[in-house]
């Protein structure tokens, strides 16, 4: 049995680059979303075996802090709109990168 090491390295490099692209695009989209003043607040999930569970009081405090941060946004309306569309574009590109990876696997 022989191993094609060149093919192995090609697949490894493609996986590292693909994962990096998806993570960078998603992180950039979240950053732009926050700069646009749309702070994503996720409600805590209740799991039976969770290590920590956020109380409703802590969730309310997080929503209050997010609203305060949105009010203190120093950007103009146009800059916020551009940041929001940039966030949407990054989310879209992230989805396209995932779909391209799936297409490579399937086809």
Task: Summarize it.
The chain is 72% helix and 0% strand. It contains three helices and no strands. The longest helix has 31 residues.
Keywords:
107 residues, mainly alpha
Plain-language structure description:
The chain has 107 residues and is an all-alpha fold. It has one domain. It has three helices and no strands. The chain has helices at 5-35, 56-71, 77-106. The radius of gyration is 20 Å and the shape is flat. The two termini are 26 Å apart.
Instruction: Tell me the overall shape.
Output: flat
Please tell me the overall pLDDT: 86
Helix-strand pattern, N to C? HHH
Low-confidence stretches: none
Q: What's the total helix number?
A: 3
Structural class: mainly alpha
Helix content: over 70%
User: Mind telling me the C-alpha Rg?
Assistant: 20 Å
Number of strands: 0
Strand share of the residues? under 5%
Secondary structure layout plus pairing:
Elements: H1 5-35, H2 56-71, H3 77-106
């Amino acid at each position: 049995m022989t191993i094609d090491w060149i093919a192995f390295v090609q697949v490894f490099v493609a996986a590292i680059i693909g994962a990096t692209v998806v993570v960078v695009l998603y992180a950039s989209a979240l950053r732009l979303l926050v700069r646009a003043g749309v702070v994503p607040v996720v409600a805590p999930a209740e799991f039976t075996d969770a290590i920590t569970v956020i109380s409703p009081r802590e969730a309310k405090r997080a929503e209050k802090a997010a609203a305060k941060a949105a009010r203190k946004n120093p950007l103009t309306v146009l800059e916020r709109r551009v940041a929001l569309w940039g966030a949407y574009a990054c989310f879209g590109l992230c989805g396209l990168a995932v779909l391209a990876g799936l297409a490579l696997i399937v086809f």
